[in-house]
Specification:
Blueprint: E1 2-8, E2 15-17, E3 24-26, H1 32-35, E4 44-50, H2 62-74, E5 81-85, H3 91-101, E6 102-103, E7 109-112, H4 125-137, E8 150-154, E9 157-160, E10 165-166, E11 175-176, E12 184-186, E13 190-192, E14 206-207, E15 215-219, E16 240-245, H5 255-266, E17 270-275, H6 288-296, E18 299-300, H7 306-316, H8 322-329
Parallel strand pairs: 1-4, 1-5, 5-7, 7-8, 15-16, 16-17, 17-18
Antiparallel strand pairs: 2-3, 6-14, 8-9, 9-12, 10-11, 12-13
Helix pairs in contact: 3-7
């Protein structure tokens, strides 16, 4: 029987309402069948683990990513797949981070959650949990996991983790993948889009838990006063910056801004340029207002999401090996980008 490990980190999906007080409290996932008896009908052996102190996803930190990665690594041999229950607000960040932390992954890590607590009658949590488990347990004709990457399942769709972004705070259809096809659609049957699935060329699993916290993030806006952001370009404090520019990678023609970028990069800093548009890609040099980025050495982030760009830089950027870091940031390593 296929073995799936459910890991509860916190979030709306794991809440039930006390019938006496009306207050919400965390589900004990060791008794998951009491709350979701439908799981007994799946031909899957379930194991459960929880964070010692479940957290709201807005509290997620590098420590939690490291703990989650270690938990999966420690149980990797014993289980066929993993379902991580996570608050939706930062789920795209966690799924992106995990995708870069795991190299050589050949089993599914499916993140899911809900917009309504699992103890509410109208909850979307039960369907999300049941189908996420079913997807994680699905094997191909060679008895290998059909999904072999980090993914997000929400409201009948499975997305690559580092291609997903939260799109709505109110709709059950909370996530989307603006620049990549969905990996599966759950209707009467689950239709897998195998042509879009990721497969690693690495033979062995390795997990990178060293994460660089000296990462900055700057979103441009009309009338921006770059004097206010000088400290962001301080190499003693910052190793890398994710820059969200206009359209296909454009920025205002500012002598100060160009000088800040040039000095930062010459001092060993790395700048990754992504678009702040909902979809599309950076094409540095297409317009005069983006040619400056090529001149000073800014790296094009193609069509990466903000979540993927930030977490990729946090995981990949090693100040002791800048050339390797630049090379990996400038190419697709986990199916996260097209150029």
């Amino acid at each position: 029987m296929t073995k799936i490990l459910i890991i509860y980190t916190g979030g709306t999906i794991g809440m039930i309402k006390d019938s006496d007080t009306g207050q919400l409290s965390n589900v004990n996932f060791e008794h998951i069948y009491d709350h979701v008896p439908e799981l007994k009908r799946l031909n899957v052996e379930l194991g459960t683990k929880s964070f010692t102190h479940p957290i709201d996803s807005s509290e997620i930190s590098i420590y939690h990513w490291q703990s989650l990665a270690e938990m999966i690594k420690e149980n990797y041999v014993d289980y066929d797949g993993f379902v991580v229950l996570h608050g939706s607000d930062t789920m795209a960040y966690t799924s992106s981070a995990l995708s870069f932390m795991f190299c050589g992954l050949k089993k599914p890590i499916i993140l899911t959650g809900s917009q309504l607590p699992i103890g509410i009658i109208r909850t979307d949590g039960k369907e999300n949990l049941i189908t996420a488990i079913e997807i994680a347990a699905t094997k191909d004709e060679n008895n290998e996991p059909l999904i072999q990457e980090v993914a997000v399942y929400f409201d009948y769709q499975l997305f690559r983790g580092n291609r997903s972004t939260k799109d709505s705070a109110e709709n059950f259809e909370a996530f989307r993948s603006p620049n990549y096809h969905s990996l599966a659609n759950a209707g009467v049957n689950i239709k897998f889009e195998n042509a879009y699935s990721f497969r690693t060329e690495k033979e062995n699993l390795s997990v990178r838990t060293t994460i660089n916290q000296k990462i900055g993030h700057l979103k441009l806006y009309p009338g921006i006063n770059f004097e206010l952001y000088k400290d962001l370009f301080d190499r003693e404090k910052i190793d890398g910056i994710v820059l969200e520019s206009f359209g296909s990678g454009n920025a205002p023609s500012s002598v100060l801004f160009k000088g800040l970028l040039k000095n930062f990069i010459e001092d060993g800093g790395i700048v990754l340029n992504i678009t702040q548009c909902n979809s599309g890609s950076v094409k540095q040099g297409l317009y005069k207002t983006s040619s400056m980025f090529n001149e000073v050495g800014v790296i094009s982030g193609g069509n990466m999401t903000t979540e993927a760009a930030v977490t990729k830089m946090m995981v990949i950027l090693d100040p002791k090996d800048l050339e390797k870091s630049k090379m990996e940031l400038a190419k697709d390593i986990r199916g996260e980008v097209d150029y």
